[in-house]
Amino acid sequence: RSKLQMSPLVGRWDHVVNGKDHYDIFFEVTGELTGTAGDARWLRKSKSALTLRWLDPNAPNGAWVDEVQLSADGKRYFGKNQNGVTIEGKRVPN
User: Fold this and answer.
1) Whole-model pTM?
2) What local confidence, expressed as pLDDT, does residue 5 receive?
3) What mean pLDDT value characterizes the chain?
4) Pairing outcome for strands 40-44 and 33-34
């Protein structure tokens, strides 16, 4: 099994934009994000850094890009998108 398949990030997350808009999303083994309209992907850049990219024709340059930091236990993330809007996420237990 690859490290990607064994990633503890794979699974269901509560994704929160600006402290109020909640999205029930799923981090797929393939690097895709599912549960929202449109194409979206996740990429773990380091042990603690993660990029979430959501294609949207209304977003700057055609995509929302969330740069977030993972908590030490890997069950939360927090950061901002390219417009400075607060982004948070919490792993939903199975």
Assistant:
1) 0.89
2) 45
3) 93
4) unpaired
Q: In what order do the strands lie in the sheet with 21-27?
A: 33-34, 21-27, 11-17, 86-91, 76-81, 63-70, 49-55, 40-44
Give residue limits of the domains in the chain: 11-91
* Distance (Å, whole) CA 77 – CA 60: 22
Q: What is the pLDDT of residues 4-47, one digit of tens each?
A: 445 889 999 999 999 999 999 999 999 999 998 889 999 999 99
CATH architecture of the domain formed by 11-91: Beta Barrel (2.40)
DSSP 30: T
Asked whether the beta carbons of 5 and 44 are under 8 A apart, the reply is no
